Write the structure tokens for this entry.
Amino acid sequence: MVWLLLLAGLACLILGAEILVRSGSALAARLGISSLVIGLTVVAFGTSSPELAVSAKAALSGQSDIALGNIVGSNIFNVLFILGISALISPLVVSKQLVKVDIPIMIGVSILLLLMAIDGKLSQLDGAVLFSGIISYTVFSLWLSKKENKGNALGNTDKEKAKSGRGSVGMNILLCLIGLVILVIGAKWFVEGAVTIARQWGISELVIALTIVAAGTSMPEVATSIIAALRKETDIAVGNVVGSSIFNILAILGIASLLAGPKGLSVSMGIMDFDLPVMIAVAFACLPIFFSGHIISRWEGVVFLMYYVAYVLYLILKSQEHDLLPIMSKTMWAFVIPITVLTLGVVYFQSRKKARTVLP
């Protein structure tokens, strides 16, 4: 029965993602909006609904660590695992808008979250500022897309989609909603099945929470980006990840902070000392890979996956050996910081070398 629940959840994830990607792409063409903006907004916001449900419930229950940890962990998972696995399936062509606009915004809001958390909590005022940020970001993204379309009309690819697209705007919106509902149901069944199986195998509750449940709330993003990568809809695959990360911080933590009441969300030292800095480092790690020819290649996907494996190993050791946390933290930073700096340096000099070669 448990395995059937797991398989049913997986089937729903695949089906929901397929419907969402198809209808989202068609909707973009019908509205004259780029697939990237659809990925950054409609798809990204919809696939983040499990995180919203978990963090909102945790905030109302006074479980600040779950509310905040769910978002920080999901953002790390989104970039490292989802982009990594998607790039392994098919090298991802990255839009110039992502590199120039959305990645810097993702980095900026990540740093903003760290600055807000320095005093040990996210207040209702912080929540209001964050939530106003997602409204501004959404309006800005739509305005930027419309501006580009007015200057260039639709690109050739979007023109072809518009001609071959099926269904009205209303029908495609309805299909997007249906796809999102199926995704959420699939994620719920998949997590329940996986947690039950893990318990049967004797895996501890804490490790389950740090790995399976955290990844489970991101299953809609996983399914959507993988299906998009298979269908060569790279703007949706990458935009979904970046948009979800921005939405998680601005909208979900904004709402959670408002729901937490006057006391706000307390920020533990563990999250401040390790997880938040890792999330910011991960956001910065996108820059060199995205700048290298505007393509996330398979080997770069492997690098991302290796980062995530290292992070999960740390979490598992953290749950078992609390006395070794200072040593393990130093070990992780000794791995993460040098590799990140080295990668930034190598890619920067490679891009400079290519630029000199292209110049007459």
Summary: Residues 154-159, 161-165 have pLDDT under 50 and may be disordered. DSSP finds 14 helices and four strands in the chain.
